[in-house]
């Protein structure tokens, strides 16, 4: 059975040294070696403190010479653990970690217990001590962020997206990994919001002209979902859920992140009901992802598909998305709309939907109702002529489909030759 800290650390990313110390602690705890377990847990905590200081620039108010000296001591085997502890206690000339005085005292308490274990003192170390230290680490580790780290982290993120400073293809993992180590846990939402504003302010002229969000911002959010800790991901999700515009833009580009809507059924419904297929974008990837992940409940699927078809889901889906929408009855709803609402004769809608309608007819049997609708629509003087041209091409290049229509017309007297689709030829 996993220990609580062990489970919590699964969502964290630390150096090999820190991870190794924590792993040894868990092994010792299970073996009943509680002094060793406490010692290794404390060393794991201090390794994380060391790594954060070494990865950070000089905090505001700390003299650069002192900072260089602290980092040098952290790199020496014989002084690193004392230097890490002293850094947690420093308050003058400026704190390295902005934490409460009570938290500093707690670190001192655990350092003393570590000394009890390391120097074989008589104080008894029970499982409760180790569990308490684990609880302390889980509750407070993210509070130890280097002072001034938020501004520096923002600078580093922006530098990553500057092609004059960062080569294309450079992984985002290291920089995303460092965010929770440089930004206080309770400041992660503010940091996400600040970064969004910085990306907006640095959009390129095309993005400004089109009114689209920064592609760098969307990539940054995606990197958080790819490499971030649970706390960072939660902060990003909370931010996205407050702004439908950026949420929709993000999900259209990264539809595989649609599971962030889990637990928010009203928001999921609003996405498909109010926003999909309202512009020129191909929204089938997002629609298909929502169907695959059941973000559109089964009892709402028919409603959603009819709604989007009537609105004008005019793009042509990819093969994988096409399989998904077919499995959920998209083309059944399309035929139903074509027949019952007579939308084939609606000039703007039918011309907009021409490619999808031709795809549907080419890949599915032509029903009597559809054949009748084709005849009535394209035998009339006023008809959607863009669609007529596409249908004429279909029947001219696909003999099987032409024969299929002719066979239906031969057994249904009210279905004849549509005058504006010449490739079907004159009906007997």
What is the typical, i.e. mean, pLDDT? Answer: 91
Q: What is the CATH T-level topology of the largest domain? A: Four Helix Bundle (Hemerythrin (Met), subunit A)
Largest sheet: none
Euclidean distance between termini CA atoms? 79 Å
Roughly what percent helix? 55-70%
SSE topology string:
HHHHHHHHHHHHHHHHHHHHHHHH
Which second-level CATH architecture of the largest domain applies? Up-down Bundle
**Count of domain modules:** 3
CATH top level class name of the largest domain:
Mainly Alpha
Uncertain runs with pLDDT below 50, 5 residues or more? none
Number of strands: 0
Structural class based on helices, strands and sheet pairing: mainly alpha
**What does the overall shape look like?**
elongated
Strand content: under 5%
Q: Taking Cα atoms only, what radius of gyration do you get, to the nearest Å?
A: 32 Å
Q: Supply the number of helical segments.
A: 24
Structural account:
This protein is mostly helical. It has three domains: 4-143, Four Helix Bundle (Hemerythrin (Met), subunit A) (Up-down Bundle); 148-240; 342-428, no CATH class. The protein has 24 helices and no strands. It starts with a helix and ends in an 18-residue tail after the last helix. The mean pLDDT is 91.
Give the SSE map:
Blueprint: H1 4-9, H2 16-30, H3 34-54, H4 64-74, H5 80-89, H6 101-118, H7 127-140, H8 149-160, H9 173-182, H10 188-201, H11 205-210, H12 215-227, H13 230-240, H14 244-253, H15 265-275, H16 284-292, H17 298-311, H18 319-327, H19 330-340, H20 347-352, H21 354-363, H22 368-378, H23 385-397, H24 399-410
Helix pairs in contact: 2-3, 3-5, 3-6, 3-7, 4-5, 8-9, 8-10, 10-13, 16-18, 17-19, 21-23, 23-24
